[in-house]
Amino acid sequence: MGLPADGLPNAEFRAGQKAARDAKAAERAAEKIESDAAREVDRLTRPTPRERNRAWRTANPARARGLVRSWKLAHPDEVRAAKRGRHIAKRAATIEILSKAQRGRCAICHCRLGDEVHIDHIMPKALGGSNRRSNLQLTCAPCNMAKGPRHPLDHARSLGLLL
After folding, report:
1. Is the pTM higher than 0.70?
2. For residue 136, what is the enclosing H or E element?
3. Which fold, 61-163?
């Protein structure tokens, strides 16, 4: 174990090698930080898939409509399920709003409403009423079944509330 080729003792030679390795490691770390930063900037400035899709649909409206139409024809069950999901969510929101307005009580007999709630049309659809929230009320099952498609004044008279 003599001297290395350049004539330095082993300890000094190893220290020089270690310093060179440390310098290269520091250089690689700095390059990695720069490349990571460049990748992050690229990621943040790149449009999202949603933005790319929106831009394509804006540029190709007729083709986009055709693709949606053909997908709906090919997947009727999924279209029906999505429509039903929207209906269920809208119904739940309507029940919550009406329940707060009626303080959790039946609109006809004023009993506490439980889990089984009926949505009743104040003016029945058969008599020209609408599905607007202003024409809806929450009732208990017996009151809703008793009212049926009668006019609200006729029902009130049958209950003895009006003369």
Report:
1. no
2. strand 136-139
3. DNA Binding (I), subunit A (1.10.30)
